[in-house]
Amino acid sequence: MTLDDSASYYWKEIIHVPPKDYINVGLVNIGFGTPFITALELRPLTGSMYETQFGSLNLFARYDLGSTTNELVRYNDDVYDRIWRDFNLDGTTTISGSSTFPAEYNDTLPDPPHIVLSTANTPNASDSLYYRWVPHNLTDQFYIYLHFTEVQVLKANESRAFLIYLNGELWYRETVIPSNLTTTSIYSIITATAPKFEISINKTSSSTLPPIINAIELYNELVLQRINRGDVSFHIQSHNDRIFKVDIETNKKDGTLEEKKKQFIYSEVLNITSNLQRVIGKGGFGKVYHGYIAHTQVAVKMLSPSSTQGYNEFQAEANLLMSVHHKNLTSLVGYCNEGTNMGIIYEFMANGDLRSHLSDRNPKVLMWEDRLRIVVDAAQGLDYLHHGCKPPIIHRDVKCANILLNEKFQAKLADFGLSRVFPTKGDTHVSTKVAGTPGYLDPEYSTSNRLTEKSDVYSFGIVLLEIITNHPVISKGPDKTHLSQWVRSRIENGDVENIVDPRLRGDFDVNSVWKAVEVAMACVSHTSTKRPTMNYVVNELQECLATKITCHEMELKDPIGVISMNVESEVLLPLAR
Q1: How many CB atoms are located within 10 Å of the residue 36 CB?
Q2: Cβ neighbours around 362 below 10 Å, total
Q3: 111 inside domain
Q4: Which of 413, 448, 502, 516 is the most exposed place for a label (fewest CB within 10 A)?
Q5: Which residue range or ranges hold the Protein kinase domain (predicted)?
Q6: Is 301 known to sit in a ligand binding site?
Q7: How do residues 22-37 score in pLDDT, each as one tens digit?
């Protein structure tokens, strides 16, 4: 923010979903003066209306259309303290009504306040309303919110109905018929990008009255940059929706942006990777190169011009990595977007992917306890995407090759190019073109195109079966048997030991294996409603790990390796499932 007029006041507003129970705010001097702040206000929002695919929302415009007071509207009129500027669209007149909104309106709904909705713009002569704007940057991605309330009492022979267009194309597929004292808010969680925008609202052929609009909100996607420490820093902590701690610190040193999550030019990428010297991975997107930033190892994923993954998936992965933060998800360091040179720079995972460690060609065998720790990590990462992100995210390509291991063999989910943001609260699925890896694909999703979080659960179940058995997901024989069918046919007799990876040479706890198999088979149920949630899966696998650790500790206490337990065999070895 640049202040160039001492006689005016400025404010900046964003909508931000904090991943933790505190927020750090820093003011950084970028060379044009001393940073200062007069006031910092935080207001909790309720409801699920302000949702994004990734990142936070930066307010571009918020207009109270048809206002007769020529004043800003904010708290107390708006309980969320959103600031509404008065504005009139070109070629319009103001209409209002005498109806009174219910007293509890502002306390129960996230819609605009009733004082904003009590007036509207309607066209003077034509049958259409127009609103045009030009973005500050050509790459800005906009979220558009339009609010409609009928402010007049229509006669029996009158009707008001209209369609909404964006840049000449139908934006909302249904006819809008505003109701009296009821708000219709039209918005999309899919962003729009263009050099200029025009919203046109056109009455239908059957409508006797021209269209109206009461309020407009425009937001663009905001990618927040981390700072080590600003010239002025604020640490705000909250509890039960109330702010109870604010720490203010000053720093006399120049504020510097952290190296993480920054944009790199292609020449910097070449320097980081020593001219793309060392290839550490390949995929449908292109190649992954090893590199260094300062003395820290990184992986650089470059998009090939002939990539089957495509620019949209590549951009989706970069955006998602900017917005999610979890110990079991790969962390973004930065990105490059220079012409045809596009790349993602993320943390280096020293031990590669899980698939390579299960391979018979790898002389080192992952022990059973290590496998359980890895699968618990991966489950926690997936559970965070489903239940820790707002809105939830579906990975859509969960497989062993997309589970990476760091130097301590901590597992992290990777490759978010196919990930999809789940719809608003209350919706049950996303209708989308089927994408993913054969063998891991949810059969229900494959036939219906209905993507749900249970589609990820199915894929995770296949990963869990792989970790247990080290058997191909689809057999190489002529019958092409699927892994889930192969396991099911062998555990019907209650003998689980014959399906366990032979490279373990019997070094595993039967009880924890049984439990893991039961969890996996529940995950791969053909009916999605019968599959557990990832939260349940995490809890069950943690119990598996605890069982294995307890067994290992008891073995250490008894050097002979014989454990005397007064427990019935039915408990130690479950009946056939």
Answers
A1: 9
A2: 13
A3: yes
A4: 502
A5: 274-545
A6: yes
A7: 777 777 776 666 778 8
